[in-house]
Amino acid sequence: MVKGANVALADLSEDVGSVIVSLGWASPTGEGDADVSVLLLDANGKVRSDSDFYFYNHPVADDGSVQLLGKTPTADGSEDRISFDLTAVPGEVERIVVAASRYEGASFGELEDVRITLADAAGEGLLRFAVDDADSVTAVIFGELYRRGEEWKFRAVGQGYATGLAGLATDFGVDIEDDAATEAQAAAEAAADAEAEAGEEPGAVLDAVGGSAGAGGQGGVPASLPVAEPAGQALMDAVPAPRRPEDQADKGQTDAVRTDKARKPASRPRTAKKKVTLPATAKRTLAENDSWRAARLFPVSALKSDRDREMRATSVLLSVMAQVPEFSRRLTAAFGAPAGRMETFTEVSLPHGDSPRRPDGVIRVERAGKLWTALVETKTNGNALKAEQVQAYMDIAARRGYEAVITLTNDVALEGSPLVDVKIDRRRKHKVALWHLSWAEVAHQAQMLIRHEGVGNAAHAWLLQELLHYLQHENSGCHGFQNMGPSWVPVRNGIDDETLCQGDGRALEVVENWERLIRQVCLRLGGELGQKVLPVQRAKRGTDPKERRDRLADQLCLDGRLQAELRIDGTPGVLTVGADLRTGKLRTAVDVPAPEQGYPLSWAKRLVRRLADAPADLHVETLVDSTGPGPRGTLERLRPEPADLLPRDGATRITGFRLSLFKGMGSGRGNAETGFIRSVDDAVHRFYTTVVVHLDAPVARRKPAKERVAAAE
User: Fold this and answer.
1) Distance (Å, whole) CA 217 – CA 225
2) Is the pTM of this model over 0.85?
3) How many Cα atoms occupy the beta-carbon half-sphere of 320 within 13 Å?
């Protein structure tokens, strides 16, 4: 589409009751990112209330009409997906604005291939619009969905905002008026309640928060409190959600943004709805000794055969999904399922030719009298999907008017590399979507909810904990990707004896499995940390995923190395993971940029102090702007002499420091204790927990004063 063009969704597909909108971009450095946001507007072009504004701290609508699904890595960057159930959008909503914003002074001009795409409920792409003139703006309206009579249409907008997310939200009526007085009042009320319970005089409360209006305050605001609040901070209070750490760093750097029409602060929610999460440490057990085992809701001791494992795993997962709506929405919204009453079934018999077929499970969601149905095919351990079996379920779903077939295995699907090839009969009016889910993704979502984000009540948290315990048990067969494939040993041998040639298909298989392993490492580490962990895939814009993997396979044949990069929120740099198949060594590393101010010797001393608890065999290398390498040494040697990290000539400029850990890699192709997969997982976990956690979080680089004044003008 071109800017300003519009199209009716019904002209593109017959299955547009729910759609998936994806916002994507590529970053030349691999570090650029943006945050998506959605605004529901009435006939006046304004939000009905602040709850019509959805962004990273308010991602889901109560009625299921909007759900921000998070980021997905692509071949040359990342993609943010949003699920819209258009049948659930309230009738008074006329337009849905889809936008994205950058923060900390970054602009969209620094990104490439800025785009929006839209797919129907079956996952088939319907349209694409590239935003080519973003330049220096910090927020962009990509497009909008709007009503025309009984149908929905899409318009390609591409409008930029130099005032960022705050300016965009204010234009559409989101109330981000100064809330300092409201916060002060809330603090006073909380303190008064606490003192009343303690039997103290409530009159002492105002002194505790800075005095009353009569004591030099302004309009009921204590004199010691600021009257104006930064736009980013006020915006965080405009929705019922906790504040984002990055925006906390910007506190005091921008002026408060006010709406033309003030609203009553008292009517605005200021805090997030309390969620239940499980404690990091287990409660003290009442067992007499370690031989006593707690009773489990989902026991695994009786699992003997693969068929038993598949049946039990399917039933366990689907039953928890039916009982924990927060969890089921995390898994099914990405597949186009609406929000509604869910029921799940196992071992259902469906007619197909001469003999009936029995899919492992069925998911049905009812909303407004309409049913959404998906067939589920499950595999555990290393069992692979059978193409003819999946094809049969696709045919059954098409004939019966079902919406999707979901496959669930330990494998990880890659972009452009389907796990099974199925034929789609284009003559059929009804389209069926084929989706894949990895057991590692299921475990990740459960861990994110019960450890970090929270669920509605303690019973839901307990159910998810039992599910997670089941998935992680060795008997369940749901351990995620666990085999580098039959080509692993031949490729290693070919690299050792230098007989592996470019174009060898076995090298491509190893590269694909390496990518699967890295994606799983990201899921596991992200679940533990409660942060986004995504693989960085550097490639030229428009590069086909298969072409990129072919190039990496040829490179593997030449130098015998596998390389990957991981971006973790809150870390100072990209974490790199390398496997040298010639030497049998794994290397995990991170580059720490040099501070903007101070002296090199102070930098070196501070770095060594921060790494006081890091392993003694940590390698530290000074990065310099000259062509040659900088000084390097182990942490054990550098602790008494940090000055050894400085270049001898004293004139070479230091750009940063590279921290690296080396360990032997497993030789086996599987997930055993001595296997390659386990060694990579352990290496990344050890490097993060012993090195990266000790480093300073990245600090937003402030613009020079002249630039800030010019921007304000």
Assistant:
1) 8
2) no
3) 28
